[in-house]
Amino acid sequence: MTPLVLPTAVLHETLGLLRNGGELRCERVALWLTPAAGGSVLREVYEPYQETARDYFHLPPESLQALMARLKSGRLKVAAQIHTHPAEAFHSKADAKWAIVRHSGALSLVLPRFAATTTVATFLEEVKIFELSEAGEWMLTPNRGPDARLLVRP
Ligand SMILES: [Zn+2]
């Protein structure tokens, strides 16, 4: 499948959102949107209303409704999600259970240490990128090289 393209400006904005959560010592999730009709460029970051704690985030029903309304009005879809962890980056059972993206080929990214030290320059060193397989499993994918599923571009 074609890799998703993440513009550095969108990445920069996303890291700011995630760090705002980290300053409260809380996880935070952000969503990357693309046109529903297709397109591989992640043009927009969306921060859903969320309930968070140190090792937890949850989108209440009204937040999911607001997200669905936003997607419908903008003819958009959620192509990928990214969230922070207090320490190590991995895809937990809860992450799989509560994933907002659920289509085969969707990406779910996790950043360690509340993204406190992550910059556009260090992003690919720190992030873990998981892809939902056709069998419904979240598989770790390489951050670089020919099999990379995400390209960071100016
Ligand atoms: Zn998690």
Automatic annotation (TrEMBL):
This is JAB domain-containing protein. It comes from Xanthobacter oligotrophicus.
